[in-house]
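In response to reviewer comment 3 from the previous cycle, which asked for concrete evidence that the modeling workflow produces usable outputs, we include below a single protein chain processed end to end. The sequence was submitted unchanged, and the resulting structure tokens are shown without manual editing.
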Amino acid sequence: MRKQWHSNKIFLGTASLILLFIVLFTSGSRTAPKNDSLPDYASRLFDDSRVHTIDIQIDDWKAFVKNASNEEYVSCTVEIDGETFSHIGLRAKGNNSLHLTESYGLSRYSLKLEFDQFRDGGNYYGLDKLSLDASFQDNSYLKTYMTYDMMNFMGVPTPLCSYVWVTVNGEDWGLFLAIEEPEEAFARRNFGLDHGMLYKPDYRSLNDENADIALKYIDDNPDSYPGIFDNAKFTVGSDDQSRLIEALKTLSTGEDLETAINTDEVLRYFTVQVFVMNWDSYIGYTGHNYFLYEKDGILSILPWDYNLAFGTYALGMTNPIKDPTLLINYPVNTPAEGEVMLNRPLYHNLMQNGTYFTQYHEYFDLFLTDYFENGRFEEKLRQTEALIAPYVQNDPTAFCSYEDHRLAVDTLEQVCLLRAESIRGQLEGTIPSTLREQAEHPSVKVDASHIRLEELGDFDDLESAKERQNTALEAIPPTE
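The workflow returned the following structure tokens.
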């Protein structure tokens, strides 16, 4: 086992060096990159060592905010780090976050900027689309950023991200997280010019069975998988549909999984996914918030959307867990209730295989040793906190006060360190690692009773943010 663990460690170290090379040595122009070049946007907007600037220039910002829930694109001009780009598509984004922002009478929406929405071939140094994440219910401003850092550390193809100070028509709007949207540029950067297909599976209604977004095999009819094929990022042909359905069929059997699943990469994804306790996800109540990549009949799952991670998702759950000790000790071998696990074959069927189950534990061992127990996590968290602190302090549309932000950062640090301590105990057998075992031994846990997960972001913050955001909205002038 140690020999296999050592080889995994070498592999991950190599993967990290490759990703670092991509970020540091990209070159190109303001046009889409050539086939033999790396995207220049990686070392420009997504240089995360500094806070960037984006000014959105739009005729009537108040009208845009009023109609944001329609999620319709409008044309605007954006200035990114002093460079102007015209005829850019702008719309609000989100699901629960969008509807709650509207229902609370707020104006700080997460946004999408699409460079080729109104101009064929439009791009930002090769990038076709980015998101501006508003840190909804994330007083730390760090949940998504740190989760992506964890995924990247584990060698999972992960969207690039960096912090940006957003202004609208020259007036301050706030600190957002710019995120590379997984579309054409993302696929080229991670998988090359000869990349495969990319999907963002999503449910029609939470009341539906949604077997397709759970990645369950239904039958051979592509019409049975609207949650996948209707959400394809590229044009889908019948061959693409057949390959994906065949992969799901193989997955459903639990046999020969390596012929249909990039098992190594998927295990690394689930290591982080389980660590961050995100139930607004594939292994959670909703079953969505992931990207699916298919190439030559092999499937991978890719990370997306973590503002409700670290135990802070409760929307729609019948009996949401709010006890921080239960959450922080949530078992790594059964990271959801049995009914959910049985309906999540990409996790469940991998864990039924002894080899993959062992490899999953080895990746957790590596993750804890090299990311948490050597201080990397704390250093990254505190460096980033220091970088964004003056911007958070002056954020006119923030969902929380600066003091609450600092408290949230401290809480996030404690949650992660206690979670790492618990999982180390689960790997070593001193803490139960399944729901059944934890029910039988309820006192054998890391004590987290002093943690208040509400400090990471709660509905009370939305109530108090309304006046602040309305004041900022009134200060935005129309374009001249």
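The two ends are 67 Å apart (CA to CA). We consider this sufficient to address the reviewer's concern, and the full set will be provided in the supplementary archive.
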